[in-house]
Amino acid sequence: MQQFWDQRYAENETVYGLQPNQFFKLFIDLHKPGTILLPAEGEGRNAVYAAKKGWEVDAFDYSSVARDKALEWAAAEKVQIHYDIKDISEFRAEKQFDAAGLIYVHLPAGVRTNFHHQVIQSIKPGGFLVLEAFAKEQLQFDSGGPKDLSMLYDAPSLCSDFQSLHIISCEQKEITLKEGEFHQGKAAVLRMLAQKL
Fold this sequence. Notes:
Layout: H1 2-11, H2 22-30, E1 35-39, H3 45-52, E2 56-61, H4 64-76, E3 82-85, E4 97-103, H5 109-121, E5 123-134, H6 155-161, E6 166-179, E7 183-195
């Protein structure tokens, strides 16, 4: 799988475009800057945007190609991001952040529940989780995402995973994605904003 992503990032100028995810952008624009964790951050579109808005960014991905592209882009934009190479299944909450952003982080069920638990541990009291992912209904669309139903999400399982947080909003909606070559067209997504009280 790592080889697949390295190849995809290497063969395309950008995979998901240069603009931040719109739901993530709205969160960043409405909240005062702090520290933010961005797992599976790919080429850095959300990390660079957050850094430009004054956030202190910690990102990771298991693709070294994606990391190199993200750091190069951050340097070109004259911002700093901290970006590690890390497998998501090995992530442990070693420090706490004012926010965590999970943007299209799709995982097998066994890995997902443990990872989500670690994400909760990595959010400071008062801190936020902002999440956008493909819903199970995404299988009817060809705008991106896993073709494995078990790796797509529904609101009950997400609410269960993050039940220890105060869920401010959790909604499923159909949107039109315009995120680079691989997220294009009508899509079924879940959007969640939650806070650790």
